[in-house]
Design goal:
By secondary structure, the chain is mostly helical. It has a domain at 19-64. It contains 2 helices and no strands. Helix 1 packs antiparallel against helix 2. The longest helix has 34 residues, at 6-39. The two termini are 30 Å apart. The relative contact order is 0.13.
């Protein structure tokens, strides 16, 4: 049984590979949504929160990939 990761190991490896990619897609969506809200002058407080959340998620991705 040495070296056998089992089913959970394979799932964990797949999740660790796809989670940063999905997170970066969320970062881009938050940035574009924040820019849209800022330019249209709809709700600037939500736009600022979207920018802050994008920075936090980006930081988490950078830390997890080190």
């Amino acid at each position: 049984m040495d070296g056998y990761l089992g089913t959970l190991g394979g799932i964990a490896q797949a999740m660790s590979a796809t989670a940063p990619a999905i997170s970066m897609l969320a970062v881009f969506a938050l940035i574009f949504g924040g820019i849209y809200l800022w330019i249209k002058k709809r709700d600037r407080s939500k736009a600022v929160l979207m920018f802050v959340l994008a920075v936090v998620i980006f930081g988490n991705v950078m830390i997890s990939t080190l």
